[in-house]
Amino acid sequence: MIVVSSEEIISQKVLPYDLYDEKGTKILEAGEILTPGKILLVRNHEVLFRKEEKQEEEKKENFTRVTKKYTQDNYQNQEEIKKYGPLNKKAKIDFQSQIELKSGYVNAMNMFNQNDVMRAKSMILEIRDKIIKDSQLIRKNVQFFSELKLLGEHKNIHPLNTAIFSVFLANKLEYNEVQIMEIALSALLHDIGKIELVGEVSNISMMTKDEEIAYKRHPLAGHRLIKTELKLNENIARVALQHHERMDGTGWPYGISSTMISEYAQIIAVCNHFDNMTSSATNMEISNFREALRALLKAGSRAFSPKPLYAFVHMLSYGDTTSFEELKF
């Protein structure tokens, strides 16, 4: 066996040989694409080995085939990027999953717009399950918020990001499996009332007075659509209704406060605002994830429930200075 350095390994896009640990246990196979999660696995081993060149010869043909497939997939990724927005190269969610989540959500909303509500609901449930499953797989390897975020057109990726952040936060707060499923679904649907808005709203600070009045109706519309069209329970519908309410009563649409706001809505309010800040969807000058966390803390318990707020801020490393431009593949 030959010792190989982690730097030699991670310089590859596709692994050219089987990798073994110091006990001789194979940890990665030749031909695997080195995703961020696999790179982290490599870095976690002080010593790694590959077999002698003679032993690796039989892998050569397979490596050539996989490299060719990688090139084809990379071309396909470029086409998907044009359609659904850039991939986050730092994300622990792999490229294929990023594409599947974004394309799945867009297709679900298209079905909803075409009044195929049951098909849309089925697709949204599939997305919820995938987010929960992917989150379980990567949870131990995530250090920064920038490693969770999806990139793309805000209306299409914001519900996904809010759901991903919410699932991580719900786990941090030790909610049970059923509750996490409801929280994930609530996050995916919290903005569905915007489907009834005329025109596109990319930054709420740039709206006219009439646009603002119309915009502030989307929680009411979301609550109605979730109950009457999607026929989901009040726990989920109430999140759409309350995610812009604030603990001090200065939110909308009803100006309720404190424990009048549901626990799920309290969780999703934090994640919703954080994703908006890290997507340049507010008038705040935020250039990286640490600044967004600082802004959350500044808003504090006047805006957000202390329990989910402080759990969120301390859920991952506070020192995430990754800029938004650094993420793009």
Q: Would you mind describing this structure in some detail?
A:
- The protein has 329 residues and is mainly alpha-helical.
- It has two domains: 68 residues, no CATH class; 241 residues, Orthogonal Bundle (Hypothetical protein af1432).
- 55% of the residues lie in helices and 3% in strands.
- The protein is built from 14 helices and four strands.
- The strands form two sheets. The chain has a two-stranded antiparallel sheet.
- A hairpin with a 5-residue loop joins strand 2 and strand 3.
- The chain is globular, with a radius of gyration of 22 Å.
- The protein starts with a strand and ends in a 16-residue tail after the last helix.
Biggest sheet statistics: 2 strands, antiparallel
Number of strands: 4
For this structure, the CATH topology of the largest domain is Hypothetical protein af1432
Give the termini distance in whole angstroms. Answer: 35 Å
Strand content: under 5%
Radius of gyration over C-alpha positions, nearest whole angstrom: 22 Å
| CATH class call of the largest domain | Mainly Alpha
The CATH architecture of the largest domain comes to Orthogonal Bundle
User: Which segments are poorly predicted (pLDDT under 50) over 5 or more consecutive residues?
Assistant: none
SSE string:
EHEEHEHHHHHHHHHHHH
Total discrete domains: 2
Roughly how much helix do the residues carry, as a percent range?
55-70%
Rough outline: globular
CATH superfamily of the largest domain: Hypothetical protein af1432
- Count of individual helical segments: 14
- The side-by-side strand order for the widest beta sheet comes to 1-4
Q: What structural category characterises the helix and strand content?
A: mainly alpha
